[in-house]
Amino acid sequence: MTRVAVLKGGRSLERQVSLASGARVEDALARLGHDVVAIDVGPDLVTQLREARPQVAFVALHGRGGEDGTVQELLEVLGIPYSGSGVHACVRCADKMLAKHALRDGGLPTPDWVVLGQIGFHELGMAEALADIGQRLGFPLVVKPVSQGSSLGVKFAASQEELPAALIAALSYGPRVLLERYIEGRELAVSLLAAGDEPAQALPIVEAVPRDRQFYDFAARYEIGRTDFVCPAVLDHALGERVREIARSAWGLLDCRGFARVDMILGADGPTVLEINPIPGLTETSLLPQAADAAGVSFDEVVARVLASAGTR
Amino acid sequence: MSGRQPPRSAAHELERYSGLFASRTSVMRSSAMRDLMAVTVRPEVISLAGGLPDTSTFDPALFVRLLGQMPPAQALQYGPSEGLLGVREAITTVMAAEDMAVEADEVIVTTGGQQAIDLVCKALIDPGDVVIAEAPTYPGAVPTFCSYEADVIQIEMDDDGMNVDALEETLAALDREQRRPKFIYTIPTFQNPAGVSMSLARRRRLVALARERELLVLEDNPYGLLRYEGDALPTLRSLEVPAGSTDANDFVIYAGTMSKILSPGVRVGWLVAPRPLLAKLILGKQSSDLCSSTMTQHFVAGYFAAADWRAYVDELCSVYHRRRDVILDSLAEHLPAAASWTRPEGGLFIWVTLPDFIDTTDLLARALAENVAFVPGEAAFVDGRGRHCMRLNFSSEADDDIREGVRRIGKIVAEQVALYETLTGRRGGASASGAPAGAAAAAQDPAEPLANVLELPRRGAAEGRRSREA
User: Fold this and answer.
1) Which CATH number fits domain A3-84: 3.40.50.20, 1.10.490.10, 3.60.15.10, 3.40.50.2300?
2) Integer Cα distance of A203 and B160 in angstroms
3) Which residue among A104, B210, B225, B324 is least crowded, i.e. fewest CB within 10 A of its CB?
């Protein structure tokens, strides 16, 4: 029996999802016979951790602070082993620009992009170059905050005219935005799982199929009932293997631990990686538990394996 | 280790549940916005989002006395589904204050005004039935309508409330499709979220229209008594059944609540409906919760017997009146010229319209980083409209917090306007460093066409099936 602190909630915009993930992790850990302390992280986190004296922390936080290396750094300082990816991997996954550079440098496909920052607009006259960017990436294009994990702030711009509003929206979430070529295709997610130092296991691929295909309604895939999830996705064997191989390579390039989810689009030119999520959702409707289930891996086993990733750094 | 036995991790969880969900859940809205709203409850956030009354003004000694006076055995017991007689009598008193003559046996006590809306839907709405509402409408009614799978058609408003011409055009268009609305939902006075009131002329027309076409109107009136200036307007119910007349109450269903004149915590609202509807509504009430809390009903009945409820409403009005002035002054001082807003004579809300390149759901994420919150406009529409509007509440935060909250909102709006100008080279409003005060005053120029004040967003490219040209 290990004393495990489950870190959940926090102040990120994804607080609600994190609370749901955390609650399920607590239940699973209790079933596995561990001594569980749940912590809704806030300004008193250090005090709480010192009082709780956990042997290990299970990080079930999503979004800013929890998924971007911040809480990981804190746990390193406090000397508490923790589940999932380390500081460096979290920093690079949470920053879509760094992640895409890592992917491209490593020879993995990812859609063409440009990153713009508020400073560029205000101080370097970047706005003058917007038309060139539009030409280079083509329309429609996807505009995302660089450091926001969920669908929040993700906009499509169908034309140059729609670009300013999309940029303003994405810049509401942080000082930098990613403009990315839109790849039409099937939305695939590969969840990966690894206990300790073992090589990552790529779980069966999940495909998100929007029920009523509305190009602009990106949020639909995050709502129950508006998207059908097919697992395992129907792909020919070789293609499926290629997709999973890319996911494993992305995991390796970014040095992930424990678990992760790699989101991809299967376009006309083959699979391409959109992003890597270092702390994928673990709610009832999340993709990783679903993929694990399809592989015959129970939720408890998922949690056990992710927990076993702690302290292997 | 906890002693409880958590349920076993289930296989095929998502698929298993998705097979169990009722089809209506697919139109229940869960959204990024809702997740954002969950963050607004942090204590350090100045929230201009909720519709909370200020309950701190209630006399604590009176509160204790009322609790002490409750008859324990009765207060702890079930009560009649239609509500305690003492409460229904108190309700007739409240309604009389707005010139409505109602018998206690026409009143059904509900668990807050929200249940009143729910029960009306439950009694009247089959999937696909048409409900007509205002655009924007009460954000809390949207999920209720959706959960009954109503086809909600929203009628544009201006500073005189729902545009009755547009309503008639919609009714005519529905006629051609051989459809008719099950009811028209309206908050005629100090509308939530728009803050505007329906003009007397439009009220008369709406009541006449209801009679002529035999249409039910659900009049939701939580704020009618919270008037800070101007002349009282008659309720639709009082226009249909003037005090002292023998006219029948055929078409207006009236929903009221204690939430804004006493306390939302007591969860006591009510319905007054044409008698043929009452029995079905009570059956619906029984199936929902048998009866509203007997304990809080005793509290309400005791309150009306022991206290001067009008004096308390007056007290609330004086607090809210001051806060409304504070928020209007703050808006004029801090919002850029490109913003406009309504100027309510009562109630709890102001509706702000921003330039259409600003998405208020994304703006909320930015606002939360500054520890201030509001309700994004999209919450008040079923069809994705309202994305550049927001609802501000002025009843629940202290004066200084209102000022500070509006200052922060003004700052981030100005930032986004300035960014737009940088991005496009076009003017999108006052510059961030400009002096917005004079410009905002211009936005409040009474000579400005009223429709501009409650400007409606353009229809988006990806509207759902519920959108309809009014």
Assistant:
1) 3.40.50.20
2) 59
3) A104
